Structures are given as C-alpha cells and as structure tokens.
Amino acid sequence: MANDSPDDSVIRDETALRAGIGPVRALAAEKVLDHLDAYALRFIALSPFLVLASADGTGDVDASPRGDAPGFVAAPDARTLVIPDRRGNNRVDSFVNILTNPNVGLIFFVPGIPETLRVNGAAEITRDPALLESAVAQGKVPETGLVVRVRESLFHCGKALIRSRLWDAGQHVPRDAFPSLGRILADQTRALPVEEAEASIAEAYVNRLY
Predict the structure, then answer these.
(1) pLDDT of 105 above 90
(2) Which pLDDT score is estimated for 1?
(3) In Å, what is the CA distance from 147 to each residue of 64, 119, 188?
(4) What is the tens place of the pLDDT at every residue in 68-77?
C-alpha cells in the first residue's frame, strides 16, 4: 500500500531551509550590486568563458557554454553586456527561450582564478551591427548576439573551484579516457557511421568556429 504521508526529508519552504543552513552572512548579503563596477568589468575583460542559463515560458531550464578570446563579451556601460553568437549547431536553445522569457543568469570564469562572477538580467536578441562589429573574429562579424540588461552582479567565492581543483592541470583527464563526441553522437543518433561523425566534428573544430 502506498504511503501518502509527506516526506520529512524534503525541504519545501525557506523557513525549513534556513533552519538547517542558517542566515545569510553579512558579506554575502551586501555584495549584490545593481550594476557592473570596476572589478566586475575587469573580470569580464579577462574572461574567455561563461555559462548562460535561460528558461522558456513554461519554466524548463537550459544552461549553455559560451567562449572565445578573453574580453569577447563587451560592456558598453555599467548595466549592459553584449555577447556575440558564434557558429554552433543551430539548435539556438537559449535564443528560443529568451523569445518567451528574457530572464537570464550568467557565470563568468577566468582560468587560474578560483572566484567567479555572477550576473543576472534580462536579455534580447540583436542583429544591430553597431553593437556586434566590436566582436569581429577572424574577419567575421557575428550575425546575432545577446544584449543583457544587468539587474544584479556579484562575485562568488572560490570554494567550489578549489574543491574541484578545476584549474589544476594535474587533475586533467586524459583525452582517451572518454569517448570522442563523434563516437557518442554516432551511437546515440545512428545518423552517421562513427568515422563520418568523428570527421565531421574534427572539421567543425577547425573550420567552423566562426
């Protein structure tokens, strides 16, 4: 017979959550800004990589990596970011989400620095050449990009990256310890033989980055 009683191990409200975790520490509570200060702007200028979180109109969430040379994200002012859209697989999951729900979260990484920068705001898709021309790479101006209107920015402590030893080269996994993307996609989709899938991925990494 099924047990219909509530599961006491599941936390269902903030009161119960705070009872176990405790209050927000003063430094953490006060560090959230409504703009990008000089420290945030410098961090973004050093960052070659970010993760973009978005959700569609029903709340289904997606997280997508974005990367290029350090400083690939422009900051025209203290409340605006411009993220170029480089060539990908044309799924554009994040862009489709933003069409119905503009709210996004970003987390910027700088190799060698354990702290990260979190930015939350509202995004829109742009084709404005005046905004995108500064993001030219290998002679190519991106056709589209995201303009993010910043609502919050805050630095996140480095405990997660310290625990994970993310920047420790001695912890890097040998490439042959995990199958290639070509093999994985060939097995998952059955759309191409392994050799063709691997060749397609290898060619894309060389000739279709921009």
Answers:
(1) yes
(2) 46
(3) 16, 13, 35
(4) 999 999 999 9
All structural domains of the chain: 30-164 (2.30.110.10), 173-207 (no CATH)
Q: Quickly list DSSP for the chain.
A: ----S--TTS--SHHHHHHHH-PPPHHHHH--BSS--HHHHHHHHH-SEEEEEEE-TT--EEEEEEE-STT-SEEEETTEEEEE-----S--HHHHHHHH--EEEEEEE-TT---EEEEEEEEEEE--HHHHGGG-BTTB--S-EEEEEEEEEEEE-SHHHHHHTTT-GGGPPPGGGS--HHHHHHHHH-SS-HHHHHHHHHHHHHH---
Give the residue from 145, 60, 137, 42 showing the smallest Cα distance to 100: 60
CA-derived radius of gyration, the chain = 21
- Residue 94 CA to residue 100 CA, distance in Å, equals 10
User: How far apart are the C-alpha atoms of 140 and 66, rounded to whole Å?
Assistant: 17
pTM of the model: 0.90
Return the pLDDT at 4.
Answer: 59
- Closest by CA to 63, choosing from 51, 73, 47, 48, is 51
Q: Which two tokens stand for residue 190?
A: 């059955």
